Every structure is written in C-alpha cells, then in structure tokens.
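Reopening: UPF0575 protein C19orf67 homolog still failing for me.
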Amino acid sequence: MAAEPWFAEPLPLSPGETAPLDRLEPPERPEDPRELQPEAAQLSLLQEAPGSTPSPPDPMVPEPGPAAPARLALDAMFSPVTDQLRYLLKKADDFQSYLLYSRDGVQKEQLAKVMPTFLKMCEPYFLYLEAAARSVPAIYGALQELVRKGLLEISQQLTLRLEQLIFMYASFGFVDLEDTDPLSISCFFCGRFSIGPSHEVSIFRYCSPAAYTASRFPRYLYKKMRWNLETTPEPNSREQDPHVDYYFLCYRDTWEDSGQSPANSCPQIQKLWSIGRWVPLGPADDDLYSWILCPQPPGDYQQLLTIGFEEPSHMLATDLLVQVLMGQIGPARPPSAAWVAQGS
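Support: Ran it again with your exact input. Result attached.
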C-alpha cells in the first residue's frame, strides 16, 4: 500500500484557537481492485454484490469449498474503499457541526477555507473510484459489473453529501455559488476516467442549477452536471495541442416556455432533462479583451439525448454520456442504450 500522503496539509489555526475538529490526517490509500483478482474473488462476485446480505445456505445443497475464502477476498478488496468513504463522510459531518455550532467572528476566515480544502481532500478518492470503475481497459470477467457498480455507488454517495454540505455553507454566506465568479464553488470536481487511449472525461457537479449562459440563451436552460472531454492528438496526427469539448446535463423549464406559472403547471412536466454539447458562439479566439470583458462566453446547446422528466442519478447520467461518446469516437454503442431517444 502506498506510503505517501494523499491530501494537503491540515487547515491552519490561529494562535490560541481550539478547533472542534481533529486534524485532517491522511488516511491510507485504497488498493486498486484490478490488482486483487484471485479466482476465489471472481467466484464470490458471481454470488454476492458488495454490501448485500448473503442468503442462508440451502441445507440440501452442499456449500462449495472456496466460498468462505472468496467472501473474505471480496471484503478485503472493498474494505479500504469503504473505510475511506466512512472517513470522508465523518469529516463532512464534522464540518457541518463546525458550521452550525462553532461560528463566531474569529473563526470566519477559517470557515471560508473549509470547503475548498475539503474538496481538494476528496479529489484523489474520486479519481480512484471513477478511474477504477470506468477507465478503458475495463475490469473483465466476473468482477466487471459488480465491482463497477459498487465503486460508482460509493462515488455517487460522496458526491451528494458534498453537494449538500456546499449548499449549506453557501446558505451561511461562506461559499459563493455564482457561476460567473471565478472564485466561487459553483461546481466541484468528482472524478476522471478514460474511454480510449486518447480520450479522457472529467466530471463536475453543480451544487445548484445554473443558467446555461449568462444571457440565458438558449432560454430556460439550466446546468446540473458538466463533463470535459479532453482529446490528446495521436503521435502521427497533424494536430499538436489537446482539444477539450464540453458536455452538460441540463433541464429546460417547460412551464416557462409555455408562459404558465409553476403553480398552474403539472409538477411532473416542469423539467425536461437532456444531455447536450456546448457549441461556442464567441468571443473570437484572437480577441483577448473580449474574453476579459465577457462574464460568460455565449454558446448554443446541441442536444444529444432527451432523457425525460425525471432527473437521472449522477451515475446514470455519466453512463448515458459514455454511451453517446462511444458511439461517436469508439466502437458501436452497447445494446442497452437503444432505448434512449435522440434529441433534436
């Protein structure tokens, strides 16, 4: 197991200040599940998902010999990951208590530093979870789906807890969620993975729905997630610099489009969710002053998937994006994606 520390140094304390939190000591780094693939673990994963309660053995059917060692191997594989999750969730609870019960003028600067520091602290864990679950080459055999699902559910659980905590700090005025402010925490990083030798996807989650552009064009469109697709040129390619495309999970307020008020609209059809690509409309690349004076560059929305009126989970939204991207830059999309309706 790696010995080097994962995280930045603890938050600095003022002289004489007594913090209600313990120091942010670096936990042990989880082991890569791809390194733990004994045959026993693969047999176990066919029988039991992570975190599930094992069924009692049938007295009429003899239990296979390697079952007990297989379960131990599975638990050993997930133990460092779940221990790390408990550690970070405990820190989130501590920071929430710190906000609610320890606020005063002396600690104001300290509270303002909590969220940026804690988000940086979580980044290596998100990198590990998403890369181990999604990156190409994937985990094959019996480990593929069960380990993937277990890791992504852990990633989603931590993402939702951070979103809740950031929103709470914003409600007390210690965090700014304004998307046009470069110093705000309008969104936060929650993982990166590869979908090919020259394509990497970074995931960002908006703490609060943000207008798609500062000018609200396209109309009534709000962002909830963003993915940066970075393409690295091949060695023999003419292009030399990496290129980044931006994809968004958005919803459109259909009641605003119809001119009705929310009170008179059916709540099930207020938000139509979709995944689309950012199409830049300006400013010009060679006009530096236009970029400086522009609060947010204007852009169009190329809708790629229409999802429906129910918000997809963090995990499902990224799954759907990957299916779209694999259809564009890689092999054919898996058959499970055939039900998704293409947007206009």
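The CA atoms of residues 64 and 201 lie 42 Å apart. If you still see a failure, please send the error message rather than a screenshot.
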